[in-house]
Amino acid sequence: QVQLVESGGGLVQAGDSLRLSCTVSGRTFTNLALGWFRQAPGKERDFRKSDFVAAINWSGETTYYADSVKGRFTVSRDNAKRTVSLQMTSLKPEDTAVYYCVADEYFGNSLGFLASAYEYEYWGQGTQVTVSS
Hints:
The chain contains one helix and eleven strands, in the order βββββββββαββ. The chain is mainly beta. Strand 5 (51-56) and strand 6 form a beta hairpin. The mean pLDDT is 94.
């Protein structure tokens, strides 16, 4: 089993920055592909239908981003601290959502896998990010 605990969400203004962190416990951390998904308000509360935000492969050498956040968000992992982070800059009101940290054992680099909510077995509880205009 893998447990994921997110932190760092909150209420900010448009243009501000925010950093989300996720602490991972359970399996060998370096075996895990990690990512972030989000679910905007008003959508069905089904995390499997969340929107892809960013992902990082097991080695940290490959990252992917949704077009909507490319150039503004940065995903990173710290193997010593067993954390994955999402640095968000130039936040927009449309970034308002519940953000989920995800993990699964995967040693590939496939975008098809890393960007699919259905491929991740382990999910955090979610952290709310609200961006006011």
